[in-house]
Prior knowledge:
By secondary structure, the chain is α/β, with parallel strands linked by helices. Helix content is about 40%, strand content about 15%. The strands form two sheets. A seven-stranded parallel β-sheet has the order 3-2-1-4-5-6-9, sandwiched between helices. It has a two-stranded parallel ribbon with strand order 7-8. α3 (about 90-110) links the parallel β4 (about 75-80) and β5. The longest helix has 21 residues, at about 135-155. The mean pLDDT is about 95. The chain binds NADP nicotinamide-adenine-dinucleotide phosphate. NADP nicotinamide-adenine-dinucleotide phosphate binds near residues 13, 33, 34, 53 and 176.
Amino acid sequence: xxxxxxxxxxxxxxxxxxxxxxxxxxxxxxxxxxxxxxxxxxxxxxxxxxxxxxxxxxxxxxxxxxxxxxxxxxxxxxxxxxxxxxxxxxxxxxxxxxxxxxxxxxxxxxxxxxxxxxxxxxxxxxxxxxxxxxxxxxxxxxxxxxxxxxxxxxxxxxxxxxxxxxxxxxxxxxxxxxxxxxxxxxxxxxxxxxxxxxxxxxxxxxxxxxxxxxxxxxxxxxxxxxxxxxxxxxxxxxxxxxxxxxx
Length: 247
Ligand SMILES: NC(=O)c1ccc[n+]([C@@H]2O[C@H](COP(=O)([O-])OP(=O)(O)OC[C@H]3O[C@@H](n4cnc5c(N)ncnc54)[C@H](OP(=O)(O)O)[C@@H]3O)[C@@H](O)[C@H]2O)c1
């Protein structure tokens, strides 16, 4: 029986990269997204899409039931979704990031495979610990909440053998924004000066860390937050200011 991995929010960005990596590893991949995947992804063997708004609890429950019926119990569940709607950002972030994650976990707790890996990964952000002025307050609170949710479920689902971790990227280059950053020399040059590894990270680099947490190699890792940011969050504001000013 192949490993069955569910990617919530896997139609775009980092989640889409993870779907590709899981397919390379021969997983059966179920993907939930709000909008249809890009045309090139629609007919990949072994990748199955469910277009469902996570805010619709009844539709979500029906989709999860169908996913398990069609493709079997799950080994991995990874959460990428964040609120991208036009409505109230606070309510949207709480519903999309926190409530939907909790609902999916509670609906699937007894639907994990009996053998093989059992892993949940939540995708956070360095905004769980730092303030990103370009993001709303709800984003910060939701990301901080996800980290604590990962710790809570690591403890309560540990006896079932389910590991739960959180991966927190910084600003990431992905297919959808690579043209923007290719032209944003002023910003990219500051990133190069201030990120200890001297460059921006990519979607595949975050996806690789998540794939590790979903592998047997991570069999004793649970309740952890792994930051994928090239070291930028280690620097003090004063040090960043000096690097930018070149003094
Ligand atoms: N990209 C970065 O620079 C960066 C930095 C730090 C942290 N992160 C975190 O990493 C995660 C992924 O980021 P990303 O930029 O790769 O993601 P993204 O492009 O925003 O994609 C998010 C995914 O979640 C789905 N989704 C969102 N709302 C949904 C809903 N209500 N129902 C069903 N699906 C929904 C999206 O589907 P639709 O496209 O159809 O809505 C999409 O597949 C996010 O949690 C983000 O906060 C990203």
